[in-house]
Structure formats: C-alpha cells, structure tokens
Amino acid sequence: MNKKQFLQQLDDSLQKLPHDERRDILQDYEEYFTIGLEEGKTEEEIAVSLGSPRQIGKELSASHQVEKAHTTATARNVMRAVWAVIGLGFFNLVIVLGPFIALVGVLAAGWAAGGAFVVSPLLVLFSNLVNWGTFQWFDAFVSIALCGIGLFIVIGMFFATKAITKGFLRYLKFNASLVKGGLRHD
Predict the structure, then answer these.
(1) What keywords is this UniProt entry annotated with (predicted)?
(2) How far apart are CA 7 and CA 57, in angstroms?
C-alpha cells in the first residue's frame, strides 16, 4: 500500500470525526511518510510499520468519542463512546457491554424505586378516591414516610449516577488505551 492509498483509507475511517481534527490527523500521518522517506524507507515499508489505517481510524474515533463523553456526559455521548470502544474488538463486546448493561440496570432500578416511593402518597389518595370510605390513617402515614425515604433515594441516585458515569467513562478510556497498545509503565 502506498502513501495515497493509506491516507485515503485512513480518511474514510475517520469520517465521523470533525473536519478540522480529521485534517490534523491526516497531516500527522503525511509527516510520518515524509520522515520515513527521508530515512530511506519506501512508502510500502512506512505503511506496514504504521499498521492498518482502518484500525487506526477505529482507535482514533473511539478516543474522540470517549473524550467527548468525558467533557459532555450526556446519555447520547456515553452510548456513542460505548459503541466506539466495543468496535475496537470482539473481546470488548463482553468486557464493555456486560458492565454497561449491569450499571444501567442498577441505576434504572434505583431511580424506579426512588420514584415509586416519592409518588406513594398520590397512590394512596388515588386508592381512597376509587374506594371511597376506606381511608386509613396508617396508610397515609406510611406513604408519607415512604415519600421521605424516596426523596433520599432520589438524591442519592443523582450523585450515584454522576459518580458511576464518571467511573465508567474512566473505564472506557482505560479499555481503549489497553486495546490500542497495552498499558505503558513509565
């Protein structure tokens, strides 16, 4: 593969990145070819030493998505980062998707429990309206207590969601760096 073919495949692999960032990456790889040619290597040797342009594109796209999710942690950005890291290799399907599904399940359960506890007084009122004449003070007091517990759960889930999102994004960044070339111990 020569320089033109390598850069074309790399450009095709980087289509999801912003234009300016893609241009900077392509300029960097053009410099690799220039330096290699000055050292007396052929374009084919340089292309082989750089690796697969498609894999390079996947790695750079995954890094971009993880950084984007890290700076703006919306559900959409986190999902894009998860899929980009999974795309780095089949092994990541198990290593990334499994914990992601588990964490989403835990968060959904916590938010559902907190929400259910918070709306429990409304459910008691609705029950008393439907079944007129069956009002019991015990039900009212228990539902108010559950509402208070639910508020604490919701507050806790807010902070837990932020912490888990931040921790999972660190895990994605760690996983992406591990797939790119292993961990470097300096």
Answers:
(1) Membrane, Transmembrane, Transmembrane helix
(2) 11
